[in-house]
Amino acid sequence: MGNTNERGLSLIEVILALGLMAGVLISVAGLFILSERQVKSGKTATQALAVGRAISEEMTGWGFKQTYRVFGDDGTAASYTYDTRTEAFAAKWQTMLDDSLQYGSYATILVAAVPPESGGSPNLNACRAIRVTVTVFWAEGDRNRSVRVMTVRI
Q: Transmembrane ranges (predicted)?
């Protein structure tokens, strides 16, 4: 009566194939969301690095005397640390941070004397070089992130 040689897929096979395909598509969509988040995070880190480098390059153009004037005339100190949120001379850098990154980001600038080769305690009056470290901080969601740019001026 009926032909028993019928070909095709059963309903269960079709449902299983569609379920498997839906699972794969959901996984791929999740990867797109994750990659978008990583691209945004990378872009923010690149902007922070660019601001840190701009601060560092501006300071590289200064002579030692100008650096002493800006960071204080006490040449017996071994290092100075300044925050762009609290120091008046760093207000232009804080504006640059607020424009490039989100509000609430800030940078710290550490100027430290590299000790003489003969040893002794390093101070800014008798150093052979100055190490300038600019660290940029920002919040990304619930995580605090930072990048650091360091140069040595001889």
A: 12-34
CA distances from 30 to 7, 33, 36 (A): 37, 5, 10
Considering the entire predicted model, what is its pTM?
Answer: 0.75
Per-residue pLDDT reduced to its tens digit, 28-48: 999 998 899 899 889 999 999
Any domain includes 2: no
- Residues 108, 83: contact at Cβ < 8 Å? yes
Per-residue pLDDT tens over the stretch 7-26 = 788 899 999 999 999 999 99
Provide CB contacts within 8 A for 101, sequence distance 6+.
Answer: 44, 47, 48, 51, 136, 138
Cα separation, 87 vs 132, in Å, equals 17
Residue with tokens 């990154």: 101
69 phi/psi in degrees, rounded to 5: -60, -45
